[in-house]
Write a structure and sequence with these properties.
Ubiquitin-like (UB roll); 362 residues; alpha/beta; 42% helix; DNA polymerase, domain 1; 3 domains
Length: 362
């Protein structure tokens, strides 16, 4: 799963990327026609995993992870205006979610922040790019339908009807997420890889003085995103970048002095993980305590296959306990003794934070 960081020039998106990745960066691991792309594999912070690691002291601790991409899509300035080239949209289609970094501070040349305008600017460009894709597809279908008797139902005519609905919704400013689609229509829509359907997290890059005291502008931005149903978080990217270079002890001391429990980057990472529709379950053993990533709604058989294909092939049942129960009991065995560990079949829907032991035989 890849999360693309986008934003207008000067928004601070590269500083945010550096803070998120803490130097764990690979170059050119994402093919980008816009130029070199930096990709950082980032651990998903999870205090539940930290507890299990402290409780069982395994030889290895493995966090869930996601990838952040900076430079997969570039925006340039042309006469003071943002310029989105065709490469921007082709590259953005390669990622699974978008983090839109919006400048919430005065620029280096004294330009005031215009976060709502900047947020809307990208949103409009995504809609226009999707409309272009839809219209191109409609033109191809029109050639297939040429000579077909009016009223005749064909796969091409069905798809054309769907595209007309999508086009009308986008032009009218409606959310495509609200359209009622059949199973086949939903499958077709997914194949288009529409930009407006990618999960979006808006990051307002605020000045340091606003970390504990948001301005009216920030409150207005926050309320706008809440009303529009956009995931939103405020971060001072420069401060986050600086503290990401500290040792763990120095970072904890610095945050404590500011009355902050954790760096904002941790909240953003978890927000992206959730936006991608991902949850974690845990396995415990002496060699390794590990967080595994699956999609919301996955079943026990899927969890088994995530660990190893043999586990899914020889699945018998799953022993499952909620993390909260394991923590409250003082450990897995203690939870078992208290009757908090339950047996489930392959159709059990895994919940976020489940601690699971798979019984299987091959």
């Amino acid at each position: 799963m890849k999360v693309g960081i986008v934003g207008l020039p000067g928004s601070g998106k590269t500083s945010l990327f550096q803070a998120l990745t803490r130097g764990a960066v690979a170059v050119d691991t994402l093919s980008s026609r816009s130029g070199r792309a930096n990709v950082g594999v980032v651990q998903v912070p999870d205090p539940r995993l930290d507890y299990l690691a402290a409780r069982y002291k395994p030889k290895k601790v493995t966090h869930a992870s996601i990838e952040f991409v900076d430079g997969a899509a570039r925006v340039t300035q042309d006469g003071g205006r943002a310029r989105f080239g065709s490469d921007f949209f082709s590259d953005v289609r390669q990622v699974d979610a978008l983090v839109h970094v919006v400048r919430g501070f005065e620029s280096a040349v004294g330009e005031p922040a215009t976060p709502l305008r900047d947020l809307q600017l990208l949103a409009d460009e995504l809609v226009l790019a999707d409309l272009q894709l839809i219209e191109t597809r409609m033109q191809r279908l029109e050639k297939q339908l040429h000579g077909v008797k009016k009223g005749t139902v064909t796969p091409a005519s069905i798809e054309m009807g769907l595209l007309e609905r999508l086009k009308s919704a986008l032009e009218g400013g409606a959310s495509l997420a609200g359209l009622e689609l059949s199973h086949d229509e939903d499958r077709l829509v997914r194949s288009y890889d529409l930009l407006v359907l990618k999960p979006l997290i808006a990051v307002l890059n605020i000045p340091e003085e606003e970390i504990t005291s948001p301005s009216e502008q920030t409150l207005e931005f926050r309320e706008h995103c809440r009303t529009a149903g956009i995931r939103e978080i405020e971060i001072c990217a420069q401060v986050e970048k600086e503290i990401s270079e500290f040792s763990d002890e120095e970072e904890a001391e610095f945050l404590s002095s500011m009355g902050i429990s954790e760096p904002a980057r941790n909240r953003l990472i978890r927000e992206c993980y959730a936006a991608l529709g991902l949850i974690s379950f845990f396995t415990i053993s002496e060699p390794e305590v590990r967080a595994w990533t699956i999609r919301v709604g996955s079943k026990a058989i899927d969890a088994a296959g995530t660990i190893h294909s043999d586990m899914a092939r020889g699945f018998i049942r799953a022993e499952v306990a909620a993390f909260a129960d394991v923590e409250a009991a003082g450990g897995w065995e203690e939870a078992k003794q208290k009757g908090l560990v339950h047996l489930h079949g392959k159709d059990y829907v895994v919940q976020d934070g489940d601690v699971i032991y798979i019984r299987f035989h091959v």
